Amino acid sequence: MNGNLRIKALPTEFYDQFLSERAKNLKPSPIRGLYPLEKQPGVISLLAGKPEPSTFPFTSLSFTAKDPTDGNTEITIAIPRNELTPGLQYSDTAGLPDLLKWITALQELSHGRKHGRNVSGEGEEGWRVSMGTGSQDMISKSATALINPGDSILVESPVYAGVIPIFRNMDCKQIEVPTDADGIRSTSLKEILENWPESQKRPKLLYTVPYGCNPTGMTASLERRKEVLRLARQYNFIILEDDPYYYLYCDKATRPASYFALEVTEPCGEETGKAYAEVGRVLRFDSLSKVLSAGLRIGFASGPEAILRRVDMLTANANLQVSSLTQLIAFRLLDFWGYDKFFLHTRNVSAFYKQKRDVFERELQKWLGGGAPEEGECDEGRLAEWVSPEAGMFFWFKLLVETSTEPSSPSLEEQDSRTLIETHAFANGVLALPGTVFLPNGSKTPYVRASFSLLDENQVIEAMKRLRKTVLEVRNLDSK
């Protein structure tokens, strides 16, 4: 963190302009809203209808896990009855207190943020953490808390397909901001904002996946991130930073700072002769699914208290809380490891996916990138184009089906991969996702998303052979 910067958190009332009408009308749960009072010393609570723990049949829990320092060694973590009770009982809506504390410190270590007053005693950064049933749960509830019908929101394009129906169900207008090999195009974003019609309400949100974006695998450069944050401050919008692949970054270059981290290091003005950084424009979403277990269904949001308070109200109304037991299991593992072993584990996971990425790209180059053809097969040149992903578990590649250069023939941009993938490729025994499902407005595209996370080397080779066969078959059909 830049120690010369004064940190200036946006006040609670600032967020009134961003909250949806539904969020403004939310009322605290009549029961859960009083939970904090139970913790006051000397209070006898007749409040909640919590079951008596002695009636639960579970008496202890133990599980084994890998030791990150030696992948072949397993450790056993036992949770005796007296320590198991928090996992068997209702807990706080925002999350199990011990896990919240651990995750809050993780965010401090990973992103340079401070929870509470800073070292000089000046102000607070105004953020905290809430747990969700996976990060998508938090994204959906945050969208509900922030979007009114008819609102315009900015979404990078291509975009994670899972959020398209979320935003569509909010009945909002999704304004696509194109991306390239360096992530979201800040120049395009600037152009959209500069030319926004004065008669229309400006967008108040930008959704982006900055590391190993699903589907493109691209990671936004530091320069792009700084410009996007500057535009957020200038044009008054909040950045929804969806970052499930943060710990799957495997490029040789230093990992760029997150938007959550940049808030406290990028100055935005001066007051009384001292530069300051305004914080509170980033709502960040993380997930334990990619590094601990997808089945635990644990994600978390970090951001302004004023927004997360409304998200917690939605949770209290919908499902009360994230499973106490899965939170307890996650906490006991993380607490046993400590932060050093957690970071070591994530580096091991990242290295694992890097190896898989390299195998996939090697075979992609051989079979679709203009490599040596099979014996007796004509050299058809390149059949696909792509950029190597720096994080995540996906390749995003353009299938080069159209070979004609005649002006009357369809351009490559007009070719659509949907039929090729869903019909021809499937008939040849290989399946991927056509790129159109990642475009908010359903445009046609020659791109395809392929996941390399589960395939072994032989499966990758066979998949690339089948894709090559498919593209050549379609080329021959188009040439007739």
UniProtKB/TrEMBL annotation:
One Pfam family, short name: Aminotran_1_2
Source taxon at top rank: Eukaryota
Keywords: Aminotransferase, Pyridoxal phosphate, Transferase
Names of required cofactors: pyridoxal 5'-phosphate
Entry-linked InterPro entries: Aminotransferase_I/II_large (IPR004839), Class-I_PLP-dep_aminotransf (IPR050859), PyrdxlP-dep_Trfase (IPR015424), PyrdxlP-dep_Trfase_major (IPR015421)
Swiss-Prot/TrEMBL GO biological process terms: alpha-amino acid metabolic process
Regions that span the bilayer: none
An annotated Gene Ontology molecular function: transaminase activity
Gene3D superfamilies on file: Type I PLP-dependent aspartate aminotransferase-like (Major domain)
Domain Aminotransferase class I/classII large, residue spans: 87-467
Family recorded in the similarity comment: Belongs to the class-I pyridoxal-phosphate-dependent aminotransferase family.
Protein name from the UniProt record: PLP-dependent transferase
